[in-house]
Amino acid sequence: MIEKNTILVHVCCASCACYVLPHLQEQFVVAAFYFNPNIHPDAEYRLRLEEMRALCRRIGVPFIEGTYQPETWWEAIEPYRNLPEKSERCWICYRIRLEETARMAADLDIEVITTTLSVSPHKIYTRIEAIGREAVARYGLTFYAEDFKKKDGFNISVDRSKELCLTRQDYCGCLLSREESKIRRQKKG
Ligand code: SF4
After folding, report:
1. pTM (whole model) above 0.90
2. Which of 75, 97, 176 has the most ligand 1 atoms within 8 A of CB, as the residue to mutate?
3. Residues 114-151: pLDDT tens digits?
4. Per the domain annotation, does 1 fall within a domain?
């Protein structure tokens, strides 16, 4: 039986979720949905998955893993692979994940969704919100719109992930972002 004020939260990794999930528990019954076909390689996907599962167990949040289909993700991204981070490439990536979250919520009779993505300073909040609203529209659901990096959210997530000894990733998730991150670090020396 799903409680009326349940929210299905798309989660990308434990280091972002360790702030966002407890924050949302202040006003919702929270369930977490890990659907991230963008994360490569497979070992990284599993690392983030298992940390996320353990965090949910620790804070009493039901955890659902989506289907991992990186090939389908690559097909969708292929036309945009030469674009940099924070471009159409990422908007498509957000859309893939939020549409599946909306579909899962509708299946589970959950009326509200959101995502941990906005806690990252590298994510464009206005895009996340617009894509989230589009994703829920076809199911008649609500997208809970909050830029989680605000009100010190990002800094709290960093401090808490250190306290909990969580992995802080040095790239967003896809292999393209891993290369971009490597180049940024090389430039910094
Ligand atoms: S950089 Fe992140 S948001 Fe952008 S396409 Fe890669 S995994 Fe998706």
Report:
1. yes
2. 176
3. 999 999 999 999 999 999 999 999 999 999 999 999 99
4. no
